[in-house]
Amino acid sequence: MRVIKTPLHRILEFKVPLNDSTEFFGGYSLEFVDIVGKRARKNFFMVIAILSLLAGVSMMVLYNVHGRIIRKEIELESEKQKVKHSDVRT
Fold first, then answer.
1. Closest of 27, 31, 50 to residue 39, by C-alpha
2. DSSP run (H or E) holding 23
3. How far apart are CA 83 and CA 42, in angstroms?
4. Are 27 and 11 a contacting pair, CB within 8 Å?
């Protein structure tokens, strides 16, 4: 088997021996394979870009939620200290 490059597209040429004196030669255009390969490459990069965007958005959401949790913990600790000090005074 070998690939022949033509001005229009590539052709996969093959030869199959039928018997000692006869061989079958054939070829198959790789134009469709090239088109599918280009689309697959383009789709791969689009999927990577979308996944990267989603990962970035997810990280921002997690960062904001984490910040809210920390602020709430600080607020609750502050209220706990106030209650503790008011119990000591009475």
1. 31
2. strand 23-29
3. 62
4. yes
Residue 66 in this model has a pLDDT that exceeds 90: yes
What DSSP designation does 24 have? E
What residue numbers bound the domain in which 37 lies? 2-89
Q: Which residues contact 4 (CB under 8 A, 6 or more apart)?
A: 10, 11, 12, 13, 27
What gap in Å lies between CA 8 and CA 86, rounded to an integer? 88
Per-residue pLDDT for 90 more than 70? no
Q: How many domains does the chain have?
A: 1
SS3 9: coil
